[in-house]
Amino acid sequence: MSTRRRLAAGNWKMNGTGADLAVATALAGRHPAPGCDILLCPPATLLSRMSQALEGSAIATGGQDCHAADSGAHTGDISAPMLRDAGAAYVIVGHSERRADHGESDAAVRAKAEAAMRHGLCAVVCLGETLAQREAGRTLEVIGTQLAGSVPDGADGDSLVVAYEPVWAIGTGKVPTLEQIGEVHDFIRARLEERFGAAAGGAVRLLYGGSVKPGNAAGIFAVSNVDGALVGGASLKAEDFSPIIEALEAAG
Ligand code: 13P
Q1: What residues are labeled active site?
Q2: DSSP label at residue 211
Q3: What is the pTM for the complete model shown?
Q4: Which of 43, 106, 125, 186 is spaced 20 to 30 A from 145 at the CA atom?
Q5: Each residue's pLDDT tens digit in the chain (252 positions)?
Q6: Would you say the CB of residue 170 lies under 6 angstroms from ligand 1?
Q7: 42 in a domain, yes or no?
Q8: Residue 2 falls within a domain, yes or no?
Q9: In this structure, what CATH number is given to the domain that contains residue 32?
Q10: Contact 165 CB / ligand 1 (< 6 Å)
Q11: Separation of 232 CA from ligand 1 center, angstroms?
Q12: What's the rounded Cα separation, in Å, for the pair 73 and 32?
């Protein structure tokens, strides 16, 4: 049995204003002593307010991106120490939407993850193949390259979470088969253990992301080396995210 504490993470993407803080406080009320870790990553404009609203609760907050540098002339960007200052414990880096919209390379993602680790944030590094890559039989090659290039040296279970998010499953309602998810998660685990050793590599939590809903969560959470989920759309409402959290607790 794994000693990894499971993690239910919500990525709100570019959604949410002050009124939506009620979703976070509702979740905190429903899950006062959860049997898994819970994380919400709101847009940067809400991070500080959400962190304050969740103070004393079991729910952590995180950013959705950070710059590789600590400060400087980078208009519109946000640094890891700024996220810490706003109450974050985690930051998502290398989400496929940022890789696509902002041309982020593996090296850029790695530099962001290094910044997160320097400042005591846990980096949630995202990986995922496109449909064309999967159909060409290149999934494991693509994931292996992204993993090697995006994850910094010295990572361990406290500083790193890896999220496998097939690009074609994000926001589409399409989900890989449980066998496909298991194949990729087992592969990522093996690569992490090779690189960081059995203890550190074995302690990194691996999340699945892409169209996770209350109706499919329990099946996904039963797959080997799935330690939780990174949830987009279904994390925006307490009625949707709460049963996903409960499914993860039950998978214990
Ligand atoms: P959906 O859950 O909306 O498919 O989004 C997944 C995702 O990209 C989480 O980071």
Answers
A1: 95, 165
A2: S
A3: 0.98
A4: 43
A5: 468 999 999 999 999 999 999 999 999 999 999 999 999 999 999 999 999 999 999 999 999 999 999 999 999 999 999 999 999 999 999 999 999 999 999 999 999 999 999 999 999 999 999 999 999 999 999 999 999 999 999 999 999 999 999 999 999 999 999 999 999 999 999 999 999 999 999 999 999 999 999 999 999 999 999 999 999 999 999 999 999 999 999 997
A6: yes
A7: yes
A8: no
A9: 3.20.20.70
A10: yes
A11: 3
A12: 41
